[in-house]
Structure formats: structure tokens, C-alpha cells
Design goal:
Blueprint: E1 3-10, H1 17-31, E2 34-42, H2 48-58, E3 62-67, H3 73-83, E4 88-92, E5 115-121, H4 127-144, E6 155-159, H5 160-165, H6 175-185, E7 190-196, H7 210-227
Parallel strand pairs: 1-2, 1-4, 2-3, 5-7
Antiparallel strand pairs: 4-6, 5-6
């Protein structure tokens, strides 16, 4: 690995953004000499934008991209994917539920794979959210044939070429499915590995919100329709 971009979307993560940035800088510097850390502020209304701007002013390796209003998780990931500049691109969530030092354990896979999609070990989320996730993963396997165990796990590493060759349209939770399925269809090699998952220390989750869930399934419905082969009409 010659260079690395680390980015994470943040929406009202004032209690986590400084620690996340500090850890990302530490881990990146231990792995490569050429690196960047990108904070994607997705229309936060707390002190996240102020803190992020201050962090960027103190360190040339840190960049901040602000959405003037909340656009959703998928849009935040698309922004991160489009603004990175390094050979490998890693993203995680800005809520501190992963130990970023586990990124080092993925390095051995980068020689033989193009995408490393991780699996949450001992997932620390409410039962309702875990059940929603189980149903979502099952639906994706049945409808799309994507054999990835924990599709929405926010601990993924991509070779830059993967992101350059695929076009993403999702604005919500379908984004992970879309990027993995597009990578698989394009012939890129996908590996899976487990990482520990930790309880959220502060802030509020949005993934279990009914509106977010309904948007995800609506996007899935449209995505499946787009992906269906078109019928040829014969005379």
C-alpha cells in the first residue's frame, strides 16, 4: 500500500469527531507516508462543523467537506468516495463504534483483493436494529444474490480503481449494497473479515429510524427494477 484515504461521515457527532480524527491520523501515519483524513459533515446542527474546521486548520492531512443541509448517509458516502485521492480508500462511521486500529489487520488482504468488507463481531446495537439488519441482508441475498454477510458494516477498504469504475446513485442505506454489487459485477475481488463492534458512547443513531428504513426498501425496489434485464420484443 502506497497511500491511504480515510474518511467518515458525521451528522451531529460533536462528541466523537475529534477522537475519530485523531485516531484516523495515528493509524494512517503508522501504515503509510502519504495519507489524508476526510471529515464529511452531513449538515450537522451541533458543533461538529466548528470542531471539524478547527481540526483541519491544525493539520494539513485533514480535510473537511460540508453539506449545507443533511443529505443522508448515501450522499455522505458518495461525497467521501468522490473526494479522496489516494491509492486505497477506507471509510467508517463517525460514531466511534469501531476500533480504527483494526484497519492494520486488513493489510494482508490488500495484495490479493480489491475490496475488504468487514463483519461486525458481537454487534452492539439494539435488538430491533439487529433484526432489521438480518432482514435486510436476507432480502439482498435473495433479490440480488450478493453473498456478503454484513453488507452495511461501516468498516470497508477499497482499491481506488473500484470506485473510479462504478457509478453510484443511492442516497440512503442502499449505498453499501450498490457499491458491493457493482464491484462484484465488475469482477473485483471481495474479501470479508471480522472486526469488533462497540456500544455508541454518545449521540443518537438514525439507522433504526422508520423513515430511513422505508427509504432503504424503496431504493431497493427501484434498484431491483433498474437491474432487471430488459425484455426484447420479438415480431
Amino acid at each position: 500500500m502506497e497511500s491511504l484515504s480515510i474518511f467518515f461521515p458525521c451528522h451531529n457527532e460533536q462528541d466523537h469527531v475529534e477522537h475519530m480524527t485523531s485516531e484516523a491520523l495515528r493509524i494512517a501515519a503508522s501504515l503509510v507516508g502519504d495519507y489524508e483524513v476526510i471529515i464529511v459533515d452531513d449538515g450537522s446542527t451541533d458543533q461538529t462543523p466548528v470542531i471539524a474546521k478547527h481540526l483541519a486548520s491544525e493539520n494539513d492531512h485533514v480535510k473537511v467537506i460540508h453539506h449545507p443541509k443533511n443529505k443522508g448517509y448515501g450522499a455522505a458516502l458518495k461525497t467521501g468516495f468522490s473526494c479522496d485521492s489516494k491509492q486505497w480508500v477506507f471509510y467508517t462511521d463517525g460514531d466511534g463504534q469501531f476500533d480504527l486500529s483494526e484497519l492494520t489487520s486488513l493489510m494482508d488482504l490488500t495484495e490479493s483483493h480489491d475490496v475488504i468488507s468487514c463483519i461486525r463481531i458481537n454487534r452492539q446495537d439494539p435488538l430491533s436494529r439487529r433484526l432489521n439488519s438480518w432482514g435486510w441482508n436476507l432480502a439482498i441475498r435473495l433479490l440480488c444474490g450478493l453473498k456478503v454477510r454484513d453488507i452495511n458494516c461501516a468498516f470497508k477498504l477499497f482499491r481506488r480503481e473500484v470506485l473510479e469504475q462504478i457509478k453510484l446513485e443511492s442516497k440512503g442505506a442502499l449505498i453499501d449494497t450498490e457499491v458491493l454489487l457493482a464491484a462484484e459485477h465488475a469482477g473485483f475481488r471481495i474479501a470479508q473479515r471480522g472486526v469488533q463492534h462497540y456500544p455508541r458512547g454518545a449521540g443518537k443513531q438514525s439507522g433504526g429510524n422508520l423513515k430511513v428504513i422505508l427509504q432503504a426498501f424503496w431504493e431497493l425496489f427501484k434498484f431491483c427494477n433498474r437491474s432487471k434485464p430488459k425484455k426484447t420484443r420479438h415480431r
